[in-house]
UniProtKB/TrEMBL annotation:
The gene is kptA. It comes from the Bacteria. Removes the 2'-phosphate from RNA via an intermediate in which the phosphate is ADP-ribosylated by NAD followed by a presumed transesterification to release the RNA and generate ADP-ribose 1''-2''-cyclic phosphate (APPR>P). May function as an ADP-ribosylase. InterPro entries: Ptrans_KptA/Tpt1 (IPR002745), RNA_2'-PTrans_C (IPR042081), RNA_2'-PTrans_KptA (IPR022928), RNA_2'-PTrans_N (IPR042080). It is an enzyme of class 2 (transferase). This is Probable RNA 2'-phosphotransferase. It comes from Aquimarina rubra. Its EC number is 2.7.1.-. SUPFAM superfamilies: ADP-ribosylation. The keyword NAD applies. Belongs to the KptA/TPT1 family. HAMAP family: KptA.
Length: 181
């Protein structure tokens, strides 16, 4: 992504996942924002946003963080919200193993408490180690944890998958995490 689309992507993450009120935007109960209203309110806050740039950000974001509705009149973040929204996820069976990227300073807490959703709606997991590596490397030297998601699912713990392929669950207890060096 170009520098401008990266900046717009970060702005959209803030507005559509955490703080729509920052620009006076309201999301519906499923996290959707009206595209025209988003553009208007973003531009009123000195963000140079138009429909073409918005389409480019949605199409080129490497993590596929955003989605349009079918007629592209609404937009939302696919997951990662810290505000209350209902994304209408349906529980599905996960792969036998999923991965989570983190850094060393969190390992002792994870050993004691497991993976917690903290301020988000879910714990985020990935199907590929490489994705977990990229996520973990945002905060330093990554440590990749293997989650025994199949075993969790067989014990009744629900998993969901967002439109962009991120696996979600409420919590991962320490006994389902493999801590390898």
């Amino acid at each position: 992504m170009k520098t401008n689309t990266i900046q717009i992507s970060k702005f959209l993450s803030l507005i559509l996942r955490h703080n729509p009120g920052k620009i006076g935007l309201e999301l519906d109960e499923n996290g959707w924002a009206d595209v025209g209203e988003l553009i208007s309110k973003a531009n009123a806050h000195r963000k140079q946003l138009n429909i073409e740039t918005l389409k480019e950000v949605v199409a080129t974001n490497d993590k596929k963080r955003f989605a349009f509705n079918e007629d592209e009149t609404k937009i939302r973040a696919n997951q990662g919200h810290s505000i209350q929204v209902d994304l209408k996820y349906t529980p599905i069976e996960p792969p036998e193993f999923l991965y989570h990227g983190t850094v060393g300073k969190f390992i002792e807490d994870i050993r004691r408490k497991g993976l917690l959703k903290m301020s988000r709606h879910h714990v985020h997991l990935s199907e590929e180690r490489e994705t977990a590596m990229r996520v973990g490397s945002r905060r330093g030297v990554p440590i990749i944890l293997t989650v025994r998601s199949g075993e969790m699912h067989r014990k009744g713990i629900e998993f969901y998958q967002s439109d962009n392929g991120v696996w979600l669950t409420d919590v991962v207890a320490p006994e389902y995490i493999e801590f390898k060096k």
